[in-house]
Specification:
The chain has nine helices and eight strands. It is globular. By secondary structure, the chain is of the alpha+beta class.
């Protein structure tokens, strides 16, 4: 029995299959299209900068600026503070965070200035939230086993697999974590960085002072208005009470006067009648 299939048709199908395979291999995976991860020494968390690809993959709003928390280490600083995978951190200690390493630089600089209480401005589920944490030099310098980050509590979506992402970036995770230590020390020891931190702190302090002054002025104005209203109410109440007391006293005096007058008139009339009868 002879094979009657069309060889041209078979070659066409093979060509189409090969083209589809090459096209698939040429396309980057969703994980590779994402920015490289960064393991934060401050928060024991995996952070990534927010770009167009990240906004698209996780449905972030255009107003969500800062760094996205992809994962947190169980029992780590970030998790203990309440920070969750999917949160967007916009500020650390009142300073704007634009890239993941910015956060560690800010924290490390202020730890060396004797600060251990830190606050983080976070967008969590579209809601502005503030988390606080104590971060010491001891906790900051504790070595993280970056080979375990794939097992951390993570954030995923339909178009993004955290497990695939950390697998494809495993080498970059180890390299960036090792290199970040010296880079952070170099940056935070520069005069330029110190000047930036001092300038931002001064601006924050001025803003806080303005808020305090506004609150004090508002309180004083409220007190004055309250006192004035109280005085007016007191005066009105006093006048009303005085009028009522005066009216009652006048009525009573009039009644007494009438009675006295009547008695006197009766006596005088009786005496006069008696005299006339005689």
């Amino acid at each position: 029995m002879h094979n009657t299939s069309n060889p041209n048709s078979s070659r066409a199908r093979l060509l189409a299959l090969g083209t589809a395979l090459l096209t698939t291999l040429a396309l980057p995976s969703a994980a590779n299209a994402m920015p490289a991860p960064y393991v934060s020494r401050s928060l024991d968390a995996v952070l990534i900068p927010i770009d167009a690809e990240v906004r698209s993959a996780f449905g972030l709003a255009s107003t969500d600026n800062g760094v996205l928390v992809l994962a947190t280490a169980p029992g780590g600083v970030g998790e203990a503070a309440g920070i969750k995978p999917g949160d967007v951190i916009s500020k650390a200690y009142g300073k704007v965070v634009l890239s993941p390493i910015d956060l560690d630089e800010i924290v490390y600089y202020w730890i060396n200035q004797g600060i251990t209480d830190f606050g983080f401005d976070v967008w969590s589920g579209g809601v502005a939230t503030y988390y606080s944490s104590v971060i010491t030099l001891e906790s900051y310098t504790e070595v993280i086993d970056v080979t375990t980050v794939s097992t951390w509590t993570s954030y995923s979506s339909e178009s993004f697999s955290y497990e695939e992402y950390t697998s494809e970036y495993s080498e970059e995770i180890s390299e960036s974590y090792s290199e970040s230590e010296s880079l952070i020390e170099e940056t935070t020891s520069s005069d330029e960085f110190a000047a930036e931190q001092a300038e931002e702190t001064t601006e924050d302090g001025a803003e806080d002072a303005g808020d305090d002054a506004g609150d004090d002025a508002g309180d004083d104005a409220g007190d004055d208005a309250g006192d004035e209203a109280g005085d007016e109410a007191g005066d009105d109440a006093g006048d009303e009470a005085g009028d009522e007391a005066g009216d009652e006293a006048g009525d009573e005096a009039a009644d007494d006067g009438g009675d006295d007058g009547g008695d006197a008139g009766g006596d005088d009339g009786g005496d006069a009648g008696g005299d006339d009868g005689e």
